[in-house]
């Protein structure tokens, strides 16, 4: 690289770049590389729309539908797509990714595209994605852009608690989702990948709205504190139980499933605190590991819970969820159910959907099952274990 290289210049510029000028900087460096137009789009909280990030030198655009546009397909499939404008010009759509978390897409109008130019433009998009993530910590601009309506205070708290909605490596993919995006109360999830282990947790705090969100935030804080001190699962659950019992009066509790997977061996261990056990989807079949002794919800326990165990096969998908998923009821009274849940996950995988897209579509299906009237908060986190000996990992 030389001092005149647009990618190096982009990196040099961003140290003192205000967040509201980031999209303009991406467009400017895109022009230097050979893209006549460059537009960054960010997805909304429900992942239904792609919103253009406006800026100086950025051509005006309208929002795009995730389901009904070429840009939306690039987002859904995590693929670079192109359409021909004329004999020499193409319009590229590149996924905007933080690791494997989908932030949005980037549209580029390019004349005389070559493999070398496409590689350089991909590098610019990769740099831009990291900068959007970093700048999001300093500004409200991007959070405001992603909102189609006002978040409730409870939902604001919950979204700030969440980890990235997806993570991927050569050994594991983790994805999560929750609804209602703008009014979530007590449902939440968390995860962490620490060397040879992957930890994940899903939680359903009693009640609705702000009281449930405060209960959930205390539980997540206790979970992370114990996990980061490398405590075993029963001790993590006990720490969460003690915080809820000590800080909240009355019948305030939370159900939870807390799991840990050893990535070298596929050994899955979990504790159950009044919550549905994990499901395992293997080659399209639903497995219910166990039997596993249930324990009272967090905040009501009088002793440490027992640990349950199962052995995974390469390619297995472990699903932790709240009852708002399987107990979603259609207008004629039919539950969504865990069999339908497992079948949907298997079919989405067979269709080639990445794990995050599987859960995005699942949440839409759960809503449709209830005639678009959500009866309860719904949260889900899914882990796919890989050993590297089978087909290429889907992200």
Automatic annotation (TrEMBL):
SUPFAM superfamilies: PP2C-like. The keyword Hydrolase applies. Residues 169-385 form the PPM-type phosphatase domain. It holds the Pfam family SpoIIE. SMART domains: PP2C_SIG. This is Serine phosphatase RsbU, regulator of sigma subunit. Keywords: Hydrolase. It comes from the Bacteria. The keyword Hydrolase applies.
